Amino acid sequence: MIVRVIGIVLTVLVVSAILVLSFMPQTSYPKFSWIPFADKGDHMAGYAGLGFSLFLATLQIPGSGKKRKGGEKPHSTLHLTSWSGRAIIYTLSYGTALGLVIELLQPHFGRSQEWLDLAADFMGLVVGIAFALLLLKLVGSYFTDRPWLYDPNWEDDVHDAH
Question: Alpha-carbon distance 142 to 37, whole Å?
Fold first, then answer.
């Protein structure tokens, strides 16, 4: 639950920043000299942040540690490859749709419409998702050996194994 809340808050902040930077006049646009590849690098960096946060916001981790109806114990092992697909599809779809809408609206705000920006947006989303998956894998591997930190039913699992 905490992962999704953090993701939602970050997504609101990142989308707000993307919207402000995308629609401000070109003359007022700040230069981010630390980001390589000029304008396309800006797009990749912004949408990498969006990919990371939106992935976390749409992620549903199975096995919250609560007992299910019928006394079944939840499955709390983290296997990212088996349950992150929906969040990846949502992130790529919503993020690309946002980039497309922004590109279509930019000429109305005195900005240029560039389809390569949309490609940079998509690449940034992929980078953000990859970073989120890597971070979750690292955090998950820490908790895999320490079920007492996240699973209130871990003692039941130990006793059932004997």
Answer: 36
Percent of the chain surpassing pLDDT 90 = 39
Whether residue 12 lies inside any domain: the answer is yes
Residue carrying structure tokens 């929906």: 86
For residue 67, being part of any structural domain is answered with no
Expressed in angstroms, the distance from the first to the final Cα of the chain is: 31
Question: How many helices (H) and strands (E) are present in the chain, helices listed first?
Answer: 6, 0
72 lies in some domain: no
**Closest-CA residue to 117 (of 26, 29, 37):** 37
**Amino acid 64: pLDDT:** 47
Q: Which residues span the domain enclosing 120? A: 2-62+77-161
pTM over 0.85: no
Higher pLDDT, 11 or 81: 11
Domain count, the chain: 1
